[in-house]
Amino acid sequence: xxxxxxxxxxxxxxxxxxxxxxxxxxxxxxxxxxxxxxxxxxxxxxxxxxxxxxxxxxxxxxxxxxxxxxxxxxxxxxxxxxxxxxxxxxxxxxxxxxxxxxxxxxxxxxxxxxxxxxxxxxxxxxxxxxxxxxxxxxxxxxxxxxxxxxxxxxxxxxxxxxxxxxxxxxxxxxxxxxxxxxxxxxxxxxxxxxxxxxxxxxxxxxxxxxxxxxxxxxxxxxxxxxxxxxxxxxxxxxxxxxxxxxxxxxxxxxxxxxxxxxxxxxxxxxxxxxxxxxxxxxxxxxxxxxxxxxxxxxxxxxxxxxxxxxxx
Length: 312
Known about the structure:
Layout: H1 3-13, H2 25-28, H3 37-45, H4 49-54, H5 61-67, E1 75-77, H6 78-82, H7 90-101, E2 107-112, H8 116-124, E3 131-136, E4 141-142, H9 146-150, E5 158-162, E6 164-165, H10 168-177, E7 183-187, H11 204-216, E8 222-224, H12 232-241, E9 247-249, H13 263-267, E10 272-274, H14 293-299
Parallel strand pairs: 1-2, 2-3, 3-5, 4-6, 5-7, 7-8, 8-9, 9-10
Helix pairs in contact: 10-11, 11-12
């Protein structure tokens, strides 16, 4: 919802009644400032961070008070800032809205652009964070400071990593410091080139990460590994260690061979399963377009059940 759409919507909501039973026109007049504050807050949340800061909070003292309430800043989507004319102020704006949350930040979509200090800033002020999404802006990158930041999120339930290079130490850190983790997504776009030349030795680092997942994240319910280069060895450890999996996405995991493999029987026990050869055409995750909004739009909804899972 844009600022213009909000204005039109409010005009419709507060339009005077046309009921003939009301004889006094003055009694028909309404004022959008008469809306309950929680209703106004719910409406304002739909216009996004930039419009709240640039427009909504300047309308009147009532709206400014609502916009400064920490509950308005429980979910922050930095990707919105990337698309705005405030791009060059992204770090300043992000720090500003994190400060406004006053320690109540519940979810953040963090865009990594060698801004390690900003990630640390978020970690130092968000001890109740439950959902962290990190997207590398330029290619596949290692996020400096990620391990140290994860140590400060004891309530973390969902970790979403897109085009992020991690090590087994990162997974082990999550296992030690984020005991409530239920959702893990580590997605990137795969390439089928050289798959036939792969061997266990060349896939060692990827299998180490898979082994760390199986050995450290026993309470996982939902796991996405699109484009991962692990082999059957890593997959077997995940299935042995993560016995509560309800969702497993192996799309474009081309180094896994399920033909005549015993691991296939274990996969049948998972309710929502995507195999390496399954098409991504209808999938909301489209790595080629660098579009990860669907996940975070779910987190940004007040109706979302954080204890559940919705990939729409």
